[in-house]
Amino acid sequence: MFIKGSCVVPACALLFAQTAWANGMDCEKAQSVVEHAVCADKPLYGLDAEMGSTYRKLMKAAPQAQAELKSGQRQWLKTRDGCADDIACLHQQYQDRLQTLHAQWIEAVAYKPDDIDREVMEDLRQRILKMIDDNPEFALERALGTLTSKRNESSFSGDPSKDNAYDQTTFPKTRPEGVSPDEWKALNASGLDSDAEQGQATYTLIDLDGDGQRDLFVSTYSGGTGLVNSYETLHRNGARFTRRKAPYDPEAINGRYSLSTSDRGANQSVGWIESHGRMYVTYFNGSYGTDRLYLLNPLKINSQIPTVTVRYEYRLTVPATQYAEDNNNSSYTLEPGLQAALTEALTQSNAGNPQQLKQGTDPLCPIPASGQGDDDYYSYGAGYYAIESVTDMPVTIGNECFIARLNNWFGSYSEKDGLPALLTLRKPGVEGQERSYSVNGRRRATQVDATIGKAEEGIGLF
């Protein structure tokens, strides 16, 4: 409510808060308890400034939604003010609101797949289906092999760090082979030292958008306990290579988006293909029974992503030759009865048909009359993040019932060995009696789907 030349106090306070928020808090004019609290806390003041930047970018990116954005902000200001001078509460309110605005910004600026992208996705699906007839094990890999890029590319690595204590590289001091003087000048003007500071960086120059200038693809490997590869693309924009900036992303390195793969158990990889005159960054994410390939626009923020999914069935076998768990790589031969019992358990569990697996609710082994340790009989127990737990099952050896779990390495597969898996057994109610046996699997592609949608949780936006 406004009066000519002045305003009613609540409305005036709201107007001041909106104006200060949009431009960054002017602490010399702080009046309310909340405003003084924000100005007195440096991290909180930083969040307030980030809020202003994020809001301005979002308003610019989504002009058709400005009225809704303003209404949502007014409601948030009321909620925030309820924190008064509670710093923890204010931090949480700012972080939650920034995450919401960040998600809205993604939806506003993200690349929208067009008809050509759909043709590329469907073409890849059809190529895989044709390859299945000749090679049902590697149809996806063979189809991708027909779409390799023919564009000129050059790769070079960062220079080793002088300090051996750090697992990182530095941006090269001299122009690498295959890099033109003009490209070298642009590279040095683009602030690329931050990539090398994160680990061992590799740089690839390749024209990702067909404009005649080579763009930059950066891969950074961070060792230690993480074993993570991070990837990003930079667009050649005249005299420099430019990053795609996000208004707010606490998980991103240096405020930018990066796509990551893990070497600790996950079956993931990044590459690129060329189809219908376009380049795509491919993100492969494998698991037991399912491979997903995401086709990403290499120089845009991706939210709705063309995705090809290949599903498999496995013929699982328990090899007679097993290897002892003593780090000496010594082998032994399974007794025929034990091999038959393990094979029967795998067959009965339907483990070879991942899409039809159903975990039951009954105990896997009979619970003794004493009733002690009932929970111990329903599953194998806690899993481990570096391996993928497929299913639990009972295994009867002689007159004894064991609980077993089939584990694998997220669908990792090779032409020589097929699927390497492990069947681990334990005796319920008895500690320390565990055994493990190798299981091999040969796969066959059974279904190929093509869809456009959001990436699975855990896969970053590229």
UniProtKB/TrEMBL annotation:
It comes from the Bacteria. InterPro entries: LprI-like_N, Lysozyme_Inhibitor_LprI. Residues 149-184 are annotated as: Disordered. Residues 1-22 form the signal peptide. Residues 149-158 have a biased composition (Polar residues). It holds the Pfam family LprI. Residues 27-87 form the Lysozyme inhibitor LprI-like N-terminal domain. The keyword Signal applies. Keywords: Signal. The keyword Amino-acid biosynthesis does not apply. This is DUF1311 domain-containing protein.
